[in-house]
């Protein structure tokens, strides 16, 4: 070591801390390039700021961050035209773990006007050391703006570093990474280009990739969301939408605004015009991108709740506190307020767009099931979400809403009725609807995977309770209709008793009902338990099926009259009772208790009918 080379120990227990940085602080190895680019961008912003009062610090016109891979030497060099560092600053900023020059500079700004402050990214003084994830030796040559001296800092990250005089034609910094054997991918231009576009595409400082003597721009350098809406064309919005969401369609809605005041951030969000190839039902987390001062931080900040996860885009803030890795956000009041504000803004947009029924339909058909999840997940916003829901109905074509349903309710109708099943087409012909249709009472038809859960969570709408028509006994007698024609046979009570005895192990109750017209039987759930659809879901999940169902019989149906006559003659109807229950289960989209035995009975009945002489 020559006399001009100074050897120093790191100012902290570097072995343990560097091991933390390399193996624990960052989950993604490529983060090192983001950190070094961020530092370079900060240095150039600092130089631009100092030039406001010291013209000697002015940036050259072609100032940029240059990334230069050298496959022969196995080095990766990042050069900037930033403020640079003196010998003392190299020792302070790089020789002491977790001492951030950026933070110290920010504190020194004091009362500088907000518009004059540079937009600085680094805060914790550890980002630089992420270079040792891919490099076994790092050298930093820097010249401070306004000084003629340059110095080189060098270290292998093993507890010490060296400082020695150097030469650099212009102010700025060169960082040379001597890459590890397993880091060769970062010598490939396409890989470096991908990392820059992923993490630093929209910072304003130009970034260039220099390969084989050719210099190519590696970032857009324009944060579209920070521009005024009047400066952006529809084509630019669409281009960015396709870029950020990897989409090919046009956005259904574009939300672009800047929040100012106590909470400041910029946001550019999109509601897609079509379902993504990866179904949103399969991915629960929101992937809206969080940027801090244009630098991409993460798309796992959960800036929107899961029930708005179809929304794509960017939220960019100036002063959101981050932890040292920038990958795991602190649970700060600022982040909570941003989430609330962004969620409220999206809901406002949906509410306004829902006023156009035709225009709202494509959105609902794409993302309605996801939006419904908000009813049972977000107690605070249920009242805002409920009017946005749309349904098929037993009385209307197309889609209808809860407010529209309430406006059509019959005089004396106290509840909003709905029916849930797996099959939308089967819902329309369900026997459960017969009595309601006969009396002109509208029923909402629900067939999405979430529909078994949210109605109970909502409970009421416009002070009207939501009620599944399969749950409990519903008295339709006060509503006149065609179902009231004809008298029930006097022997129906005896039939009900006989059925209760025969089906004691399978049903909780048997009762006559006035809500059937064409069908002989229907199942319902007891008033105290889950409705039939929820019971089916519980059984599929291996969690039991709740209480036994109720078998309701139509006393005016020929089959029921025939069974009543058989009971009156004291004939055993045990086998017929089982078949009756299986019929009810099949009508309700369930399977018979014993499918094979049921199939044999049907086959025998068909054979008997075929062999009977024609009338």
From TrEMBL:
Q: Which residues form a coiled coil?
A: none
Residues that, per the record, bind ATP: 35, 39, 80, 85, 93, 100-101, 123-128, 173, 326
Q: Which GO terms describe its molecular function?
A: ATP binding; ATP hydrolysis activity; ATP-dependent protein folding chaperone; unfolded protein binding
Keywords, A to Z, come to: ATP-binding, Chaperone, Cytoplasm, Nucleotide-binding, Stress response
What InterPro entries does this protein map onto? HATPase_C_sf, Heat_shock_protein_90_CS, HSP90_C, Hsp90_fam, Hsp90_N, Ribosomal_Su5_D2-typ_SF
Kindly give the SUPFAM superfamilies that the UniProt entry links to this protein. Answer: ATPase domain of HSP90 chaperone/DNA topoisomerase II/histidine kinase, HSP90 C-terminal domain, Ribosomal protein S5 domain 2-like
Per the record, GO CC terms? cytoplasm
NCBIfam families under this entry?
PRK05218.1 (NF003555)
- Subunit annotation: Homodimer.
The family line of this record is:
Belongs to the heat shock protein 90 family.
Main function = Molecular chaperone. Has ATPase activity.
Protein name (database record): Chaperone protein HtpG
Organism of provenance: Methylobacterium gossipiicola
């Amino acid at each position: 070591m020559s006399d001009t080379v100074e050897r120093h120990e790191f100012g902290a227990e570097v072995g343990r801390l560097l091991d933390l940085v390399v193996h624990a602080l960052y989950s993604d190895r490529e983060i090192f390039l983001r950190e070094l680019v961020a530092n370079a961008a900060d240095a150039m912003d600092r130089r631009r700021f100092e030039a406001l009062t010291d013209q000697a610090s002015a940036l050259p016109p072609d100032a940029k961050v240059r990334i230069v891979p050298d496959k022969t030497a196995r080095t990766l060099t990042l050069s900037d035209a930033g403020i640079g560092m003196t010998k003392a600053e190299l020792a302070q900023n790089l020789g002491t773990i977790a001492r951030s020059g950026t933070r110290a500079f920010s504190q020194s700004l004091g009362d500088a006007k907000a518009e004059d402050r540079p937009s600085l990214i680094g805060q914790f003084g550890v980002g630089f050391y992420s270079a040792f994830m891919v490099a076994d030796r790092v050298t930093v040559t820097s010249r401070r703006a306004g000084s003629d001296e340059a110095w080189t800092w060098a270290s292998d990250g093993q507890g010490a570093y060296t400082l020695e005089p150097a030469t650099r034609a212009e102010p700025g910094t060169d960082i040379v990474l001597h890459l590890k054997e397993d880091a060769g991918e970062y010598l490939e231009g396409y890989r470096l280009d991908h990392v820059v576009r992923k993490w630093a595409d929209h910072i304003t400082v130009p970034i260039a990739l220099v390969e084989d003597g050719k210099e190519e721009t590696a970032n857009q350098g324009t944060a579209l969301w920070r521009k005024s809406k009047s400066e952006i064309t529809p084509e630019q919005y669409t281009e960015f939408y396709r870029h950020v969401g990897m989409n090919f369609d046009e956005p259904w809605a574009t939300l672009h605004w800047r929040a100012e005041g106590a909470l400041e951030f910029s946001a550019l969000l999109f509601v897609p015009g079509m379902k993504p190839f990866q179904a949103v039902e399969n991915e629960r987390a929101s992937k809206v991108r969080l940027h801090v001062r244009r630098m991409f931080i993460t798309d796992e900040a959960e800036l929107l709740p899961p029930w708005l996860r179809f929304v794509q885009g960017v939220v960019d803030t100036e002063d959101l506190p981050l932890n040292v890795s920038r990958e795991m956000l602190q649970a700060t009041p600022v982040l909570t307020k941003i989430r609330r504000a962004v969620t409220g803004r999206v809901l406002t947009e949906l509410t306004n767009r829902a006023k156009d029924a035709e225009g709202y339909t494509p959105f609902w058909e794409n993302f309605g099931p996801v939006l419904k999840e908000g009813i049972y997940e977000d107690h605070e916003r249920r009242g805002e979400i409920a009017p946005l829901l749309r349904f098929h109905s037993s009385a209307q074509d197309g889609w209808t809403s809860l407010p529209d349903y309430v406006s059509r309710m019959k005089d004396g109708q106290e509840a909003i009725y709905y029916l849930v099943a797996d099959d939308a087409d089967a819902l329309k012909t369900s026997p459960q609807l017969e009595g309601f249709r006969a009396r002109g009472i509208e029923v909402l038809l629900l067939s999405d995977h979430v529909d078994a859960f949210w109605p109970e969570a909502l409970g009421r709408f416009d002070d009207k309770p939501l009620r599944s028509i399969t749950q409990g006994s519903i008295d339709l007698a006060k509503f006149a209709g065609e179902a009231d024609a004809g008298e029930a046979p006097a022997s129906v009570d005896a039939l009900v008793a006989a059925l209760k005895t025969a089906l004691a192990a399978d049903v909780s109750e048997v009762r006559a009902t006035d809500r059937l017209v064409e069908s002989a039987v229907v199942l319902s759930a007891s008033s105290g338990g889950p409705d039939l659809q929820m019971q089916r879901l519980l059984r599929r999940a291996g969690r039991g099926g709740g209480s036994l169902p109720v078998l309701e019989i139509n006393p005016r149906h020929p089959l029921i009259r025939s069974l009543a006559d058989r009971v009156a003659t004291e004939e055993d109807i045990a086998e017929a009772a089982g078949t009756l229950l299986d019929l009810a289960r099949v009508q309700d989209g369930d399977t018979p208790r014993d499918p094979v035995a049921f199939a044999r009975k049907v086959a025998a009945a068909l054979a008997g009918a075929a062999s009977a002489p024609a009338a």
